[in-house]
Design goal:
The chain is an alpha/beta fold. The protein has 16 helices and 11 strands. Among the domains are: 119 residues, no CATH class; 98 residues.
């Protein structure tokens, strides 16, 4: 015959002077032992237990805090009360309603206000930091709706938790992060004595790749807007990510310095920045610490040359001699670029563009060929200072491609902003989500919260697991 066990869970709360504040049974369970699904606590039981336990602990802590502030801190006279009002503290284990008493201030302790509420000083925010952290972390990895469903499945969060609440909390965290960034000193070197500064390492040891991605605009459905994604790699240090929407970021150069700081580097650390040469990323690379180098990605140069080569092959059907000459001239320009001779490559590209523009041919792609050669001139001209000797760097095993940055764009943007599903975003919403997502993926979101809330428990999640599973 199956038996039934009666489980009673008793909570005992004791003050620091050994006075018993609470001693009662908070949960009773009848557990049978005849089926495997009845063995142990079920999720519903655990959520009920955690909810009841949270209510009791928070109420006891709030009452103890009020009692410590019930008397004047100067003369120890008991303060006169002025009623109370309800507040709600939102936690990982449910909402806890509390009665917040208000007291008149003592005459010996004048202040601007005649009354005060002790709990208003304790609960400076009505959402627990740990709940903000969990919402921000998971909403950075999956949709707001899925985050809400996940939290409700495994935790006794309030029934009122919804995707809009999660979105607002994530935006709140990201906005505070941006506010901290804006509050940093404008100088490249952190405040403090020179002895406290970390020594820079060789520039070649820190590689920063910057690339762009595009999202559909919620407000202008026919257009996309660009997001800029970066990855910083330093020897013997974990990689760090950053992202932004340029129109929403007043201090993008400080964001890069913050990334270096999170890698344990000085904020004036010289770096090597690789970009695709686009206008937006080139402008961001212009705000670099002294001694840094901006390098144009070889892959994008080669891709432009490859496109021109395809046009030359098409031209061969109508103008074989001109096509052969064109291919030969393209190879010579590419050779100059590969060896870092931007000046000669630009002169040859200009001559080529002029000759192609004067070419007469029945070739159907001639207009596109003219446009492409003119575009090559503009591209080389805009990025001449960032064209380096790629052959030498290749021989020394140095990075010359932003392939790692492009994969970061895919990790940061495509897998959360759902490019394949054609989701639409506001610029502000995308920018704020990028702030928490990049820190979640590189494992530093919890570190951010502990700077705000030093008493938060240590993070027991491995940082690399998020990037691998996102």
């Amino acid at each position: 015959m199956p038996s039934t066990l009666r489980v009673q869970l008793q909570l005992r709360i004791v003050s620091d002077d050994d006075a018993v504040i609470q001693d009662e049974v908070i949960l009773e369970l009848d557990k049978s032992d005849d089926r495997i699904e009845a063995v142990g606590l079920c999720l519903k039981d655990s959520k009920d237990l955690l909810g009841r336990l949270q209510n009791a602990v928070v109420e006891a802590q709030a009452a103890a805090y009020v009692n410590r502030h019930r008397c004047c801190s100067v003369c120890s006279r008991r303060l006169r009360g002025k009623g109370q009002y309800p507040i709600v503290f939102r936690t990982v284990f449910g909402n806890v309603p509390l009665a917040s008493p208000r007291f008149y201030r003592c005459r010996c302790h004048p202040a601007d206000s005649k009354t005060f509420s002790p709990l208003a000083e304790l609960f400076t925010e009505h959402t627990a930091p740990e709940l903000l952290y969990l919402e921000s972390r998971w909403a950075s990895l999956i949709s707001f709706g899925m985050t809400t469903a996940l939290l409700k499945d495994v935790l006794p969060v309030a029934d009122t938790t919804n995707p809009e609440t999660v979105r607002q909390h994530l935006h709140q965290v990201a906005a505070r992060q941006d506010a901290d960034l804006d509050g940093e000193p404008a100088s490249l070197v952190d405040s403090g004595s020179a002895a406290d500064q970390v020594s820079p390492i060789p520039r070649e040891a820190v590689i920063v790749g910057i690339d762009g991605g595009y999202l559909r605009n919620w407000h202008d459905k026919k257009r996309n807007f660009e997001v800029i994604i970066g990855k910083s790699m330093a020897e013997d240090r974990d990689d760090r990510y950053f992202g932004l929407v340029r129109s929403q970021d007043a201090t993008p150069e400080r964001r890069l310095r913050e990334v270096l700081r999170r890698q344990g580097l000085p904020t004036d650390q010289p770096v090597t920045v690789l970009t695709d040469g686009g206008d937006s990323v080139r402008a961001l690379a212009g705000d670099l610490p002294a001694g840094s180098e901006h390098q144009l990605d070889w892959f994008h140069i080669a891709m432009r040359m490859a496109v021109l080569g395809q046009y030359a092959k098409g031209l061969a059907h109508d103008n074989p001699l001109e096509a052969t000459a064109l291919q030969d001239r393209l190879e010579r320009i590419k050779w100059r670029l590969w060896h870092g001779d931007a000046g000669e490559a630009l002169n040859r590209a200009r001559e080529l563009a002029e000759d192609v523009a004067a070419l007469t041919s029945p070739y159907s792609g001639l207009t596109r060929l003219v446009k492409a050669t003119a575009g090559l001139v503009t591209y080389i001209g805009n990025n001449a200072a960032a064209i380096v000797d790629y052959s030498e760097r290749w021989d020394h095993g140095e990075i010359i491609s932003t392939a790692f940055a492009e994969s970061t764009v895919d990790l940061v943007v495509s897998r959360r902003f759902a490019k394949k599903q054609q989701m639409q975003w506001s610029k502000q919403g995308a920018h704020l989500l990028l702030q928490t997502r990049t820190r979640t993926l590189d494992g530093t979101l919890h570190d951010l919260f502990t700077t705000w809330y030093p008493a938060m428990p240590a993070n027991d999640v491995q940082p690399t697991s998020f990037a691998a599973a996102a």
